[in-house]
Design goal:
A hairpin with a 5-residue loop joins β5 and β6. The chain contains 10 helices and 18 strands. The longest helix is centred in the C-terminal third of the chain and has 21 residues. It folds into 2 domains: 188 residues, 3-Layer(bba) Sandwich (FAD/NAD(P)-binding domain); 109 residues, D-Amino Acid Oxidase, subunit A, domain 2 (D-Amino Acid Oxidase, Chain A, domain 2, 2-Layer Sandwich). The strands form 3 sheets. Strands 1, 2, 8, 9, 10, 11, 17 and 18 form an 8-stranded mixed sheet that branches. The protein is an alpha/beta fold and 391 residues long. Its cofactor is FAD. Pathway: Membrane lipid metabolism; glycerophospholipid metabolism.
């Protein structure tokens, strides 16, 4: 490891790897570090990803695909169901093998010219005259200092980089989902269909999911909004759900974690530093999906870093261009979906049942699942039109 780079990226998830790839493709000297020994481990994700826009970032490889998704079923509290399907033979999305997907993204960053180090973590920022100038860290047990023109913090929902820079603080309980997930085996599930379950008995302020992984396996999990915690932990809700939906199944793996479901932050950059992905809290607050937004923000950060370094200006004012791009891009859908989330999490089960019936009357089931996803994750449909369906 050298002592000086153009860009240092902290965190080798989808956001960090994509940022490193983009910056390296601009001819910059890039260091990409990951605190864990193995890329993509442990998996803390439901592993679902719709394919819309994916090939802009990485070419399809069946090695990191467990299941191709061609449909979705959404269950209301009363058991009513909306069924969506994809027209034709083309898949709408994938259930990933995340550890292989993440490693493919890191390999892409390395092939673009990035230096990659695992078992390497940042322990602090080098800040001079109010500008971030690099990081302090530990690599394989040894301390180091590495200077850079720009640092990109992509170190996940618990982002230390964001806190050290003064950009990220504690998350309000109303803006975080506490999640639990089992990987289960020996189950009978539709291998090409996602299942989502809503209701306060299933998951207060969130939903439960069933994502098929092939070979009679599935990721089954749920999230509970922090402000709706009633003394019953997510894993207790999950056990109850799994016992009812998949009695007698084998639990192969259990994971837990938190997902930020926030509005867009005012600033996710400062002099010499930008935050990307979950570290910038750019998860879709309605769906809880973060992989695509992570890659989009990572690419934006890599591009803005290249432009700023080329111009010789990495000041807070110069990097504010990144904030503007986020707000004008994925930020519009995040802001719209945050408003909807604020309404949905307060909805009673009877309101959720009414919403599903309203959607059925709108003949929404005839719309391809890929178009439904695209509508939800872009800013084209005003929040008020969705909220009115409840009323």
């Amino acid at each position: 490891m050298r002592s000086e780079y153009d860009v240092i990226v902290v965190g080798a998830g989808p956001a960090g790897s994509t940022a490193a790839t983009e910056a390296a493709r601009h001819g910059l000297d890039v260091l990409l570090i990951e605190k864990r020994q193995e890329i993509g481990e442990p998996v803390r994700c439901a592993e679902g990803l719709f394919k819309d826009g994916l090939e802009d970032f990485i070419s399809y490889d069946p090695k990191w695909v467990c299941a191709e998704i061609r449909g979705a079923r959404i269950y209301a509290p009363d058991g009513s169901v909306l069924c969506f399907s994809q027209q034709g033979d083309e898949a709408a999305g994938y259930v990933l093998e995340r550890k292989l997907f993440d490693r493919a993204l890191v390999k892409q960053a390395a092939e673009a010219g990035s230096e990659v180090y695992v078992k390497t973590q940042a322990t602090g920022l080098i800040i001079e005259d109010g500008i971030v100038k690099g990081i302090k860290g530990i690599s394989n047990g040894k301390g180091f200092y590495a200077r850079s023109k720009i640092v990109i913090g992509a170190d996940g929902v618990e982002s230390k980089v964001g806190r050290w820079a003064g950009l990220i603080g504690p998350i309000r309980l109303v803006d975080i989902e506490s999640c639990a997930e089992f990987m289960i085996s020996d189950v009978d599930v539709d291998p090409g269909c996602l299942e989502l379950y809503f209701g306060n008995e299933v998951s207060p302020g969130g939903y439960a999911w069933v994502f098929p992984k092939g070979n009679k396996e599935a990721n089954v999990g749920l999230g509970i909004l922090g402000s709706r915690f009633n003394g019953v932990r997510p894993i207790q809700y999950l056990k109850k759900f799994v016992d009812k939906r998949f009695p007698g199944c084998d639990v192969v793996q259990a994971i837990a974690g938190a997902v930020p479901v926030c509005d867009v932050r005012h600033r996710i950059s400062t002099g010499g530093l930008m935050l990307a992905g979950d570290g910038a809290r750019l998860v879709d607050p309605l769906l809880g999906a973060g992989i695509m937004n992570a890659m989009i923000s990572g690419r934006m950060a890599g591009n803005v870093a290249a432009q700023a370094i080329k111009s010789g200006d990495v000041s807070s004012q110069a990097l504010q261009k990144y904030d503007v791009q986020i707000r004008q891009g994925i930020g519009k859908a995040i802001r719209r979906n945050y408003k909807i989330k604020q309404f949905v999490v307060k909805a009673t089960d009877s309101q959720m049942n009414k919403l599903l019936r309203s959607l059925q009357k709108m003949d929404i089931e005839s719309v391809p699942v890929s178009k439904i996803y695209r509508t939800v994750t872009t800013s084209g449909l005003p929040a008020i039109k969705i909220i009115k369906a409840f009323l």
